[in-house]
Amino acid sequence: MAINLSKGQRISLEKASPGLKQIFIGLGWDINVTDTGSDFDIDASLFLIDSNEKIISDQHFIFYNNPISPDPEQSIQQRGDNRTGAGEGDDEIIDVNLKTVPTDIDKVIVAVTIHEAAERQQNFGQVSNAFVRIVNAENEQEVIRYDLTEDFSIETALIMAELYRKDGEWRMNAVGAGYEGGLQALVDRYQK
Fold this sequence. Notes:
Shape: globular
Order of helices and strands: EEHEEEEEEHEEEEH
Pfam families: TerD
Protein name: TerD family protein
Family: Belongs to the CAPAB/TerDEXZ family.
Number of helices: 3
InterPro entries: Stress/Tellurium_Resist, TerD
Strand order of the largest sheet: 1-10-9-3-7-6
CATH topology: Lipoxygenase-1
Number of strands: 12
Radius of gyration: 16 Å
CATH class: Mainly Beta
Number of domains: 1
Organism: Waterburya agarophytonicola KI4
Strand content: 35-45%
């Protein structure tokens, strides 16, 4: 049975599911009935962060145009870009091998942004049922889930969660923080 987190809660992945090695991060959402004249294209991205809270290099920004981490094991891989969010379940998925993530990566920031939000007059207030979940890839059992419940009426970028190392093990923090300025606001925050 999955552990449901609330905003700000943290949990050890090892305590949630002992021996967890290969996971996938599932992200999902529904679009409210609105007419902005354009479809919503919500994109998942990851910032692979060092001990200084900065992105290690441009290749450590994982998104639809750079879907694989630069390490030789390719320990983090985005499966693809869902451009509509249609259907049930996960809209975007990222695979992570917790055992091969390089040690210079202290934190994995899991974010979603609305593509061309300003031009399309869209924001996360027009989105509902957003969630992030950690799934054991070996048996497809959901381990941890965080459902966002806030109304982000002006925000165009969200940090959903963080995976981070502490005392030699991976943990998850349910962040749920919204930002104006879309993807660029997050890039500015984490760039060296």
